[in-house]
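thread: overnight batch results

M.L. [08:02]
morning all. the overnight job finished for the chain we discussed friday. pasting input first so we're all looking at the same thing
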Amino acid sequence: MSLRSRRPSRDPDRTVPAPRGARTGRLRRSGRRAAALGLAAVATLGVAEPQPLEAQGLGDRLFPTLGNTGYDVTSYDVSLDYSGHNDRPLNATTEITAQATTELDRLNLDFARGTVRSVKVGGLPARYEQHGEDLVVVPPVHLSRGQQVKISVEHTSDPRGKTDGGWIRTTDGLAMANQADAAHRVFPCNDHPSDKAFFTFRITAPQELTAVANGLPLGAAGTRAARRTWTYRTAHPMATELAQVSIGKSSVLFKHGPHDLPIRDVVPTAHRAALAKWLAKTPAQVAWMERKVGPYPFEAYGVLIANARTGFELETQTLSLFEKDLFATEHLPAWYVESVMVHELSHQWFGDSVSPRRWSDVWLNEAHATWYEALYAQEKGGRRADLETRMHRAYEQSDGWRAEGGPPAAPKVPSPGQKISIFRPIVYDGGALVLYALRQKIGPAAFDRLEREWVAHHKDGVADSADFTALASKISGQDLTGFFQEWLYAAHTPPMPGHPAWRPAAAGDLGKPAQPGQPAKGGQPGKTGQPGKTGQPVKLAAKPTPPGKPT
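M.L. [08:03]
and the structure it wrote out:
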C-alpha cells in the first residue's frame, strides 16, 4: 500500500508479539460426536433451544478478532450481482471449500456489512447466527479432521455505510480496497493473510459496464437479456485482503511484458487517452523488478485506475489499484509517480506472493516496497531522490517514529476506528532503513542473494520476521539474531553500520521539513478516516512527501 500523509498516533504502548507458529482461524470443537449430532438435530428440526454461539478470534496482536482456526480454506467462489447502482446492496453467493484441521461441530467465518439469507454445509441447510463480525455456522453433521467441506452462503454485500474499507464507490461503479481487515465486509471468508486460497469471481452487471477481478478471464463473458456475466480465476493462492473486483464504465487494455507476461490495464474509458503514457511504463517496470529479484510471480499484472478519492494506492494481486488523481496532478514529477507505481508492483513479490504470517510482519511488505520504490526513484530522479540521503533522513526520524508507532516488527495496535493506522512511517521508510542497515552489515552481494532467495523460497506462501532472520543468517554466514532483535523490536534505533556519525534527531527537531521524497518529520496531521467525495475513507499515512507539497 502507498499512502500520502499521516497523523500522529494515539495508540497505547505496544504489546509483546504473538508467539511464532500459530495457525490462523477460529473454530470450536466438541470431544464427542454425539454432541455434534445433537446440535445438528437442533439445527435441522428446531426441537430444542440451541447452545449459545459466540464470536471468537485468531488472536493476531493487531487484529485479534479476525481469522479462524480449525480449517484451511482451499478456494472461494464468489458470485456478485450488481444492479448498476452503487448505493444498493449486491445479491451474492460465496462458496468456500475448506479442509478441517481438527474435529468440528461448529465453525466461524468473518462477515459483516451484509444480510445472510441461508447457509449450507455439504449441500445441507445449516444453522447460523451473526455475532458481531462473526458468522457462526453449525454444520448439520460432525466434521472430522482432514475432511473436505463445502460451505455455501447466500447473502447481500452492501457498499453503503461506514467508510472503513471493503467496497469503494467510484463515480461510475465499485472497486475493492480490503487491506488490512475489510474483505469480510464484502464476502464471508477467513479474513487473515495467513490462510491463502484460490479465487473464482463471477460478476453479473448491466451490458454497458465492464467487470474485472484478480487473475485472468475464464472464457468469454456470458450474456443474457440486458446483462452480462464475467468470470475470473486466479492461478495462484491469494490472501483475502488482496481480492479485487471493479465494475464500471471501463476500458480493458491488453499488452505483453517480459516473457510474454499478459498485462491488463483497466481505466475509466473517458480518461483512456490521458492515462496512456503512464500505462505504457508498466512493461519496463516489470522488467526492472525482475532484474532485481527474479521472475514475476503471477499469471498477469496490470493497473486498475479508479475514478475515486482514496488517499492511497493498493497492491491487489495481479491488478494494483490506483486513484486517477495520482496521474492527473501536474506538480508531481514523473519520477515520483513512476516510483509509486513501482512500489505497488514490488508488492506482487513482497506481500502478495510472500504474505505476512501475522499483521505484525507487515514491515516485510512495506519495507521492501519502499526499498525498491527508493531505488527506482534514485535511478529516475538522480540527486533529487538519492537513496543514501533518504535513508539518512529516515535514520534521523526513526526514534520519533518508534516512539509514535512502535518498532518495525511490533507496531502499536490500531487506534479505535482507525485500523489503517498500522501503516505508519515506521513500517515504510523505517522498515526500509532496516534493509539498508542489513545491506551495510552483510554487503550488497549477500543482500541481493537474500532478496532473490526470499521470494523464491516462500513463493505463494506466508512468512514472518523469524523466517527472514533465519534466511539472512544462512546466506550471510553470520548469526543475525541480535542484529534483527535490535533493529526490529528495540525502542531506539541502533547505530547504523558503516555510518558511525549518523545520529537520531533530537525530540525538538522532529518538526523540520522533510527532504523531497521523504516523510515529514514527526508526522503531518492528516484527515485519516474522513470521508472523500465518494463516501470512502481518505486514509492518510506514511507516504513520502513529494517535491512541492507541504510537509
